[in-house]
Design goal:
By secondary structure, the protein is of the alpha/beta class. It folds into two domains: 236 residues, Alpha-Beta Barrel (TIM Barrel); 76 residues, no CATH class. Helix content is 47%, strand content 11%. The protein has twelve helices and eight strands. Strand 1, helix 2 and strand 2 form a beta-alpha-beta unit. The longest helix has 22 residues. The chain is globular and about 55 Å long.
């Protein structure tokens, strides 16, 4: 570990998170109007409902259709959410989901320049903080496999910009796997690389000798919440969109040293989410995203959800009525269906 770089990283983290690093993060769903626009009202309503339980958000990531959204649409998502998130004390990462790293580089430069015009602060960091952001989440380039040199060459220009960066290891999305050695190399060299999110389910970095305690680590995989409590600084959980209060209780019980209760709750959530994914796998497309969207329908309307239409999706997916009912029944049987939704 490069102690000088680590100290600069700690100082950056202190500025970005003066109240402490959030334990629970949510990759927020992007909501749409019937005509295909961004539904800012619904996004803000969802965000406000999460605030008591979730300290950090990621916008326009995998779950938020980031790979398909245009730059203009991403700007609209940010505009819909940042003011409310800042007012509620939530920290926000802007996920720059581009298949090619040079496109991600261009988007970040464009955004930094826009923030400089809007806020006029002395540094990119101050402009980001003024906007209510804690940095950019970036992905490895598509299809690079496990070639560290190719991945390094692609990501180095972004890191050289000096803006706060989180790197996401998401081989299911990109076909690229980030090695612990490469993460360790970036960690030693770039103090602005301050957060690593592992969506792989392999957990290699936190179990490796390269693990640097100055780097924030988030686990981006559902299941086994209790098991991984001591290995990560926090969790980026898709199902926090609908079950944030229950997930928060798992960590609250752990922190109160009620490990048996935490384990029981963790197993209950595991079972529910496995059942939801089993239903969603009957559909085409991303099972996690479809499951989370269907859960959001019941989170939005509570007991009235069976009588309401499911919100539009970006690609126009139509969910079979029987499948929607089965999702609702599963949530209701688990005891986790709210009486009233965040839209009512």
């Amino acid at each position: 570990m490069n102690e000088q770089t680590a100290q600069k990283r700690r100082e950056l983290i202190s500025r970005l998170f003066p109240g402490g690093i959030p334990r629970i993060w949510c990759p927020l769903l992007t909501q749409y109007t019937p005509d295909g626009g961004i539904d800012a009202f619904r996004m803000r309503a969802l965000l406000r409902s999460l605030a008591p339980h979730v300290g950090g958000l990621m916008l326009t990531g995998d779950l938020g259709d980031g790979w398909q959204l245009s730059r203009r649409q991403c700007d609209q998502v940010l505009a819909a959410c940042l003011d409310d998130a800042r007012a509620l004390g939530m920290r926000v990462l802007f996920a720059v989901a581009e298949e090619e790293s040079q496109d991600a580089y261009g988007t970040i430069v464009y955004h930094l320049e826009a923030l400089a015009r809007i806020h006029g602060k002395d540094s990119a960091l101050e402009n980001l903080i003024a906007a209510g952001l804690c940095g950019y989440s970036i992905f490895a380039p598509f299809g690079a496999g496990q070639e560290d040199q190719r991945i390094e060459e692609a990501l180095r220009p972004i890191l050289n910009l000096g803006a706060p960066v989180a790197i996401i290891n998401s081989p299911a999305s990109t076909g690229t796997t980030l090695s612990p050695a490469l993460i360790g190399k970036f960690c030693d060299e770039f103090p602005n690389f301050y957060l690593y999110q592992d969506n792989s389910g392999l957990d290699e970095y936190v179990l490796s000798p390269y693990d640097d305690d100055s780097l924030i680590t988030l686990r981006g995989v559902e299941f086994d919440y209790n098991k991984w409590y001591n290995h990560y600084d926090g969790f980026m959980l898709p199902f926090a969109n609908s079950f944030a209060s229950t997930l928060t209780r798992v960590w609250a019980e752990r922190e109160d040293e009620n490990e048996d209760v935490a384990k029981e709750m963790s197993l209950k959530m595991d079972g529910l989410i496995r059942g939801l994914l089993e239903l969603a796998e009957r559909l085409e497309g991303n099972a996690i995203q479809n499951a989370v969207r269907l859960c959001d329908h019941f989170r939005a309307y509570g007991k009235d959800a069976w009588e309401m239409d499911v919100a539009p999706t970006l690609d126009g997916t139509q969910y079979p009525a029987r499948l929607v009912e089965q999702v609702g029944d599963l949530i209701n049987d688990s005891g986790l269906l709210n009486e009233n939704g965040y839209l009512l």
